[in-house]
Each structure stands twice: as structure tokens, then as C-alpha cells.
Amino acid sequence: MKKRRIIIAMLIGTMALSGIMTGCGTNTSNTQSSAEAESGDSADSTQGKISLLDTSDMFTKRDLDESYDESECTAITLDDENSSCDSDAVTIDGQTVTITSEGTYLISGTLSNGSIVVDVEDSEKVQLVFDNVSITNESGAAVYVRQADKVFLTLADGSENTVVSNGTTTEDDSNIDGAIFAKDDLTINGTGTLTVTSAAHGIVCKDDLVVTGGTYTISAEKQGLSGKDSVRIADGTFDINTVVDAINSENEDDETRGFVYVANGSFTLNAAGDGISASYVVQLDDGTYEITAGGGSANVQSKNSMGDMGPGNMQNNGGTPPDGGTPPQMNGQQNQDSTETQTNADSTNVENTGMTVENLSAVATSENTDAKNTETESDSDTSTKGIKAASALQINGGTYNIDSADDSIHSNGDVYINAGTLELSTGDDGIHADSTTDISDGTITISQCYEGLEGQTIDISGGVIDITASDDGLNAAGGNDSSNSNGPGGGDPFSADEDAYINISGGQITIDASGDGIDSNGNLTVSGGTIFVTGPANDGNGALDYNGTAAITGGTVVAAGMSGMAQNFGDDSSQGSMLINLDDTQSGEITLTDADGKELISFTPSRDYNSVVISCADLEEGATYTLNTGETATEVTLSSLVYSNGQSQGGQPGGMQNGQMPDQNGQSDSNAPSGQPGDGTDPGQGGPDGNGNGGPGGQPGQGGPGQNNTDNGQSGTDQPGANNSQSNT
């Protein structure tokens, strides 16, 4: 095998700023770079954005050259036991045709139960030109590359070619399990068509599998395209139906190999497993993709959010705790967790600048053990993601329509979206990274998901993003996938993570979330962009939710939801922000006007609300504004730059203030008798360990003694809940 040099291109970029709203300008940015170019006989396929992979030598000139001189070819005519060839470099034994010397071979005809075998010196190259070839093998590969330096399979212009494998065989401890099976480098090019049917894999290469043109229809009981070191596609049209992954690259021996790179092409992928999967990196620069994985989002049981869970109370209505907690089961069922070990990312961040193969490899090889709640109807051991990478995943352009049972876009390390149009529907996360989710541009529509964007850290600097989520819209949570292939769940719903954050510096973001609209287990920072959030219709989640600090220094934010868990931005903000808890639930348009009647903001949430957070550049301390919500007008004087009419700006989980649960008006008080819930003016104190004792099923728990707790600051009041084995604070 030949060592491929894979480097990470350095990020060099410029920031572009543009205003979106009058009076409430939004900063957006697009980061661009040119990947490293090198001289030699390699073709430069650099796409111009940030590049995880060195694309300059991804395809050689001969990979892209589909030409051949027919007069200089060795002709092979296939006709079962009557196959013929005039060259001593070809031996024929029944229906087995073996090529033993380098050269170009023009092949036509039919084998009803045979194969073409390439067995030459490991320094020799062979070109096979298929011109209307049909080969079926009942017990092995139709085309078998036993040994060569490299084989080029060219599909002649206008030709229609078919290979079928109805079984597998073994040779020298190798399992020959593809209709086309190559032990060394294989390139397929040309403009003809190739139909592949296999009882195992479609096309397998134990080195680098390269495709630069042609039209392919592949049906396989396992994987469609499989390259151990890499799968590299320059162009082509692909219709792939598989029982496992449609396109897969996996190398367990070398952590810097096992990648998928696509420069362009048209892909229709219908996989019971993953659409595209790599053990190292997936980089997609362009192309058109229609991907269905695991039967699509319709193949997943419904995952609801927190339902009517109010402060200190989780009803047994199929709701989900905040921050990815395991949802309570219906009809008194207990949660059944399945544990599996997968290759996942550790906390190592792979930044756009100064990225190295070493830290990518560390991400790819770190192992974590997940305990997940099974939610899919498919086999719990089968990954059913749209596009998946173990180390890093990058999209630099293209059009994607993905319907997946599990995450549509997933990396055990980092995800970078630099351009493209993505329409995603999923039974779990729209875009998930165990480490960093970074979006700099593109149009992303997530029409159905559990959580929209998820990562330990989320950076958004540009793009147009529209999310409809049954739980959180954006979720920054530490650790590996809190809603992995076995469905959402796991983790402490109230735990803070100092390494987690959400940073929004640009873009247009619209979120409709039944859970938290924007949820960070760490900090939340907004310095640009336009953000509209429709939050939950219950008090168990908030339009904004953070466990650390929240600061806004620019951009425009309107976040509407219910007041029970409402949070405003914090005192570190340099831009004005207001949180208004309304007396009554409202519906319809929200507008904010200044004292002169000038409209500053307008947004229509998709659900009822009684709490609104608004921030934009026009807000000034001391000024008076009119907030119109539905049929109600509320006059607001911004007595401080960050103003709330009834709730703390602090970053306690789920809207808590200093360990106290808010009352119906969003207030937290400190003088009620021990063990009693607050009423807005006289709430209960926390117990000594911050937790009351859960009562028997369906009964209220008893609160702790009337002392403020300095340990974790949770209220000592319990309410009836679905799980009465612990305090439901």
C-alpha cells in the first residue's frame, strides 16, 4: 500500500459584516481559505474553503483520464466456457479469466458464473475497459483484484455493464465478499453505466477506492462502496440501496486513514445503516445528496419534550428532562438502558486554525462508553445516521436532503458547515458533534428532530438556520453524544459544564423548540446575528437556558416562551436586554416600539407565550418602550441595561435563582416555612443537602429543614412526580 499524505490546511480568512434589520443590525461572517497546492502529476481538486484534507493530490491525472486507444488494447471476449483472448498475458480456465501482466484490456461479453481476476506484480498497473460486460458469480467476486499496484476500471462511453455476486468465498484467510473486490488501489472512471448486485458488499477495496465518473446502480446486502483506506469521489451518479452503510471507509489499523472525500456527484442513498460513514474524516465539497438512513425519521418512536413539567415537578406524561435527560416512560414502564462501546471524541477541540493530524487522530481513537435509551425500531446495534465521521466532518458546499432515524449529521469529534443547502429530518439530532459544532455559512433547515444543533461547544458565525425541535433547538452539553444511535437520554439534567458554550456571532437563526430554545450547560454569548426563538408551551423549559453566564454584546434576539424557567442575559452584557413576564398568556405578533412609535422588532411566535426576552442595538438604559404582545401593550422603562420585571438574570439551571425555585410569577424568595413551596412572596428554604426526600408514588415529598443550603442550592420542596425514588426538584 502507498502512504497517502493527509494534512490539515491552515485557516486563513476574512470576516464580512452585513446588516439585516433596521435599527437592530446583525453581524454575519464567512470564513474562506485556499487549501495547500502542490506540484507534480496530481490533479488539484481544492474547493477553496477550509480543508480538513489535502485535496491537491486526492486524484491523479490518470484517475481522471478515461481515455484508451482501442488499437493498442488487448481484447477479451467473454462467452462462458467459450471466452477468448489472443494474448499470453491472459489465461482462461472455464469461466475464470485471469490477467497476469500489466496493460490495457478491452472486455466485452457475458459470464453466467465466472469472474475476471487480476493477478500481476505489485509494481504493475492494469486498465480494464468494460464495454457491455455482464458477469455473474454464484460464489464469489465477479471482478477480483488479487494483486496489482493499481487497477483502473473504465466504463466505455455508452456501455451498459452488470456485475452480480450471489455468494462469498475465502482465499488466504481473506474473505472475498464484494461483487467487485480489490486488495490494492482501485479507480473506476468513464462515462458508461455499471449495475452491481451483491449478496454481501457491492464494491470493496482494501486500499484506496477512487471513482471519478460513471453512472452506478448498486444493491447490496451489506455496504455499497467500501474502501479501507479511503473512498474518494470526483464525480458520478450513484443510486445505492444497502442493508448496512451505503458508502463506508474504515481502517482500524491506521487512525489517519479511513476517510471519505467527495468533490462532486449526484447521490441517492437508501441505507438501513448509515448513508455515509468514515472512521476518520468525511469531507464533502459539493454534490447533490438524497439520503435515507435507517428507514428515515418515521422509523423512530415519538420523542416528546418535558410536557407539563413545571418548577419542581415532572409529570409522567412522556416528557423529557432538560439537557438530554432520560425521558420518563409511559404507563409505568421503567427506563431500559443499553450500554455499548463506540469510538467517540474526547474533550479535545479541533480548531479551524492550527489543526493537526495528531489531534484529529486522538479524537478518532479515544473511546467512551455510552448508556443510551433505545428509541428506534431498528436494530439497536445498527448505526442509522445520515452522514457520520469518527474524527471530523466538514461540508463545504452541495445540496443535502437527509431523512434519518438517528442523527442526520454526526461526528464523534467536530462538525464544520461552511456552505451548502441542508434539509434535514431526523429521529434524533439534526447536527451533532461530541466536541465542536461550527457553522460559518449555508442554509440549514431542520424540519423534524429531537435536538437541532448539539455539541459540547457551538459556534455560529453565519448562515440561515431554521430548526423545529421536539426538545432543544441548540444544545451545548459536555461529553459524548447525549442522544446517540440508541436515542436521546442520559446525563445529569442540571449539571453545569465549564467547557460547554454557545457562541453566536452572525447568521439568521429561527428556532421552534418544545424544550429549551437555546440551552447551554455552560456559557451563552451573542455578539451578532438575528435570533428568533419560539420556546416551550410549558414551564418546564425556557426559551433561553444556561448554566453558566450569558452575555449579549451585539445582534438581535427575540425569545418567547413561558415564565417558569425564563432567563435573561446577564450583567456582563454591553447591549440592552429586557425580560418581560406577562400577566396573561398571549398569542400572536410581538412588536417593540420606542417612545417615538418607531418599530424596532417584530416577530410572531408559533405558540402561546407569557414571557419574552428582547435585545437589540437600539435599546438604551433609561429609555421607555412599548411591548405589544397579541392584544396587550406593556410600557417598559429600561431602568438598567439588563432589565427584568420579575426574574433573575443569573445562570442557575432551568431558571433557578440562588437555589430557589421561581414562583408562578418567576420570582424566587427566601422566607417561607421549611418544606413549603413559595407563593411569590414567602417561599420555602432549601434543605441542608439541597434535596427533599421523595414520597411514595403519587404523594408529595417532604421538604428539608428550613436552612439555606450552600452545597448545590436546590430547593428542599418536592412535588408529585413520575419518578418518586428521588427528589423531583
Fraction in beta strands: 35-45%
Specify the overall morphology.
elongated
**Total beta strand runs:** 57
Unreliable parts? 1-48, 303-379, 482-494, 648-729
Between the first and last Cα atoms, what is the distance in angstroms? 59 Å
Structural class: mainly beta
Assign a percent range to the helix content: under 10%
Rounded to the nearest angstrom, the radius of gyration is: 29 Å
Q: Report the major sheet.
A: 22 strands, parallel, barrel
Mean pLDDT: 78
How is this structure best described in words?
The protein has 729 residues and is an all-beta fold. It is built from 2 helices and 57 strands. The strands form 6 sheets. It has a 22-stranded parallel β-barrel. It starts with 41 loop residues before the first strand and ends in an 85-residue tail after the last strand. Residues 1-48, 303-379, 482-494 and 648-729 have low confidence and may be disordered.
